[in-house]
């Protein structure tokens, strides 16, 4: 029988575990407090538990299955953690400080099956889905490394989270339920490449998460150059799903738009994006391309600002993502790809 992970345990799981171990049930509450209030997954540090129980927890549960393998810090204090998993696969999480706030960017898969052509994570395709506890453990690594609980969590790291829906939903439940970590869903952003069936499953959860959808283009033809694979949905279906999300969940959707020089950064594209954003009551997040290959270039600063101005002049709320962590390979998956290449070179 496979072991249950401590980060996924419910109170009743822990209650039956401690009872089976001949311990009083109040021990379950103490363990819950360590895990979900003090963000501690190492039984050796749960000092109010008897030594024997700490040892038994280590043998009966997966306590911390992953470890920080490498840390890269940029001059703006954005920190990227390369996290090694129990099967030696690697993922990334990023700690992004900004204006007294701290945001954690978490991964949901090892590799990614969507294969956006500007993205390092999609280069090798999907290796496997992350388990729920592996998603949650990234939060614990971030807290241990930064010494802070995040103000916001964004699922914008490696992977298309909505294609790993069950495990993502289980992790979200533990992160948001009051008797577990208890973070407000309003401070959690789920980013998707526009995987429409996943957006409808997210609606079924009924929680006010922020949905960020990666449009990257205003017409299907251009979009197919950027996201060439079978997992790309037509823009019209994505926009319908966004409307349904806002109507049912009551939260404005964000359109993510990675700007690629000469591909999607024209004034005409900006006008069309502005009309889409207004028509679907969405905000726009402009992300100048972080160059990971020869294929795509970041637009000139002037073109980026002109594009933003066209959107803003029509009353659209635009966020222009200041590049955080470019020097630490912060575009999703770059640090992992660097690690894979290093491993391959040493073989
Ligand atoms: S941008 Fe996101 S969805 Fe696209 S390949 Fe990269 S990780 Fe996957």
Fold topology:
Elements: E1 4-5, H1 11-20, H2 26-37, H3 51-60, E2 61-62, E3 67-73, E4 79-84, E5 90-98, E6 101-105, E7 109-111, E8 126-129, H4 132-146, E9 152-155, H5 165-176, E10 188-192, H6 196-205, E11 210-214, H7 220-226, H8 235-249, E12 254-259, H9 267-279, E13 283-288, H10 301-313, E14 318-320, H11 334-346
Parallel strand pairs: 1-2, 6-9, 9-10, 10-11, 11-12, 12-13, 13-14
Antiparallel strand pairs: 3-4, 4-5, 5-6, 7-8
Helix pairs in contact: 1-2, 4-5, 6-8, 9-10
Notes on the structure:
Helix 6 (196-205) links the parallel strand 10 and strand 11 (210-214). With 347 residues, the protein is of the alpha/beta class. The two termini are 34 Å apart. The protein has helices at 11-20, 26-37, 51-60, 132-146, 165-176, 196-205, 220-226, 235-249, 267-279, 301-313, 334-346; strands spanning 4-5, 61-62, 67-73, 79-84, 90-98, 101-105, 109-111, 126-129, 152-155, 188-192, 210-214, 254-259, 283-288, 318-320. The strands form three sheets. A ten-stranded mixed beta sheet has the order 3-4-5-6-9-10-11-12-13-14. It binds iron/sulfur cluster. The site of iron/sulfur cluster has 12 residues, from loops.
